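Sequence design from tokenized structure. All designs in this work follow the same two-part layout: the structure record, then the generated sequence. An example of the structure record is given first.
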């Protein structure tokens, strides 16, 4: 019944005509593979970011518990550095999530573009550029976090006994 209703309308018949071409659908699937692989890569990087964020948050909690008893200067510096790391990783995750969402929009628009008359190539290009901007910003924040982490490791290597 639904198919009969769709078949009787001009819009539905036009859509069916455009999607009936296996070659057209195959081409769109082929074009969407690169963004899909990018999405998988973003997911893998976000997994690393989340693991770091969880570790940093746990370390902050342990230090805050210890600092409530006494206030050693070295641990206060470490706590400040850990809070900075947490902010950087949180921003990296937010921008990477935005990149993942915008790459999903790119894939959706690729499929839609094959079946509509108005050309939306400019919108797809804009979404792709936004994806790269979000991803770059997220990776820059993540790189900054690793630099802060490595600077903290070098501080721990030097004794803090005042001599």
């Amino acid at each position: 019944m639904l198919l009969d209703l769709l078949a009787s309308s001009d819009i539905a018949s036009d859509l069916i005509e455009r999607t009936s071409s296996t070659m057209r659908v195959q081409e769109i699937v082929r074009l969407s593979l690169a963004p899909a692989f990018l999405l998988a890569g973003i997911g893998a990087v976000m997994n690393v970011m989340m693991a770091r964020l969880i570790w940093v948050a746990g370390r902050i909690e342990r230090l805050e518990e210890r600092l409530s008893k006494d206030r050693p200067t070295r641990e206060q510096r470490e706590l400040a550095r850990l809070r900075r790391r947490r902010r950087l990783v949180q921003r990296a995750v937010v921008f990477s999530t935005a990149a993942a969402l915008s790459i999903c929009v790119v894939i959706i628009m690729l499929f839609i573009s094959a079946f509509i008359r108005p050309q939306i190539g400019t919108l797809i290009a804009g979404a792709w550029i936004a994806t790269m901007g979000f991803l770059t910003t997220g990776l820059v924040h993540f790189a900054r976090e690793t630099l802060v982490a490595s600077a903290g490791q070098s501080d721990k290597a030097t004794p803090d006994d005042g001599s």
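Residues 159-163 have pLDDT under 50 and may be disordered. We note this feature because it recurs in several other targets discussed in the main text.
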